[in-house]
Design brief:
binds NADP nicotinamide-adenine-dinucleotide phosphate, alpha/beta, ten-stranded mixed beta sheet, single chain, Rossmann fold, about 30% helix
């Protein structure tokens, strides 16, 4: 599948997730515009490495694509997504997970009730919501699909392994948007599994406590 079928792709965030997602697209010959907080010039080495289909742009440019991957840390999501162009039904792929890094000098570092403290992270306080409900409020008018968030991103550039295809989950409430993201996942060489609505699939595949989070499955 080419961009002609999928539409344009933007990536907000060029760290571990954003850069590896771009790497996956580049390997499949798909085009995208990638952005970070420091501006396109700071991404010169990355786009040079990834080749001609991946362009560095501003956040506004990346956010104007038909499909936009949000690949920023949970604590930055509200700031990044505020003030972007109207979504008008365009597709947002939420690649975030609601985890926060712990300041080693804060009381959180010694919170015995946090099973993740040893890893230097904690679950974000979502006020009783699940993370897609919060991201949905930050992208009003977008069609939200949760995907590309359940694995350590270092495995993403190898969609085909051990005689099979690596499994990626996706969930969402809009059938057409889900079909587009499924097409993107499959075009990149993965095996796509539909986990249902955001209410069901989002929490299942989200770190830190989703039952399917971090399960690196291969469809033989
Ligand atoms: N790492 C993983 O294995 C993994 C796996 C699955 C899901 N995720 C999720 O993916 C998300 C990103 O994680 P990551 O590991 O990729 O984080 P990361 O390596 O720290 O990258 C974060 C990116 O966000 C950008 N950013 C921050 N504030 C911004 C702003 N105001 N405008 C534009 N860009 C901004 C940063 O740009 P600058 O560097 O220029 O500030 C950076 O490129 C998180 O929600 C995480 O839970 C990560």
């Amino acid at each position: 599948m080419s961009n002609a079928t999928i539409g344009s792709i933007g990536i907000i965030g060029a760290g571990a997730l954003g850069s590896n997602f771009a790497r996956v697209l580049a390997k499949s010959g798909m085009a995208a515009t990638i952005a970070n907080s420091r501006g396109p010039a700071s991404l010169a080495a990355l786009v040079e490495e990834l080749g001609p289909t991946i362009k560095a742009g501003t956040v506004q440019e990346a956010a104007s694509a038909d499909i936009v991957l949000v690949a920023v840390r949970w604590v930055d999501a509200e700031k990044v997504l505020g003030g972007l162009p109207a979504w008008n039904g365009r597709i947002v792929i939420d690649g975030t997970n609601p985890v926060e890094f712990i300041d080693p000098a804060s009381p959180d570092a010694n919170d015995a009730s946090n099973p993740l403290a040893a890893y230097g992270i904690k679950a974000a306080d979502l006020g009783g919501q699940h993370s897609s409900q919060i991201i949905a409020q930050l992208v009003p008018g977008a069609r939200l699909v949760k995907a590309f968030n359940h694995l350590d991103v270092n495995v993403l550039p190898e969609p085909e392994v051990a005689g099979g295809k690596r499994v990626l989950f996706y969930s969402g409430d809009d059938a057409t948007a889900k079909a587009a993201v499924r097409g993107l996942i499959e075009a990149a060489g993965f095996f796509a599994i539909d986990l249902g609505t955001l209410d069901v699939g989002g929490p299942l595949a989200s770190l830190p406590f989703g039952a399917l989070a971090m399960h690196n499955l291969v469809r033989i």
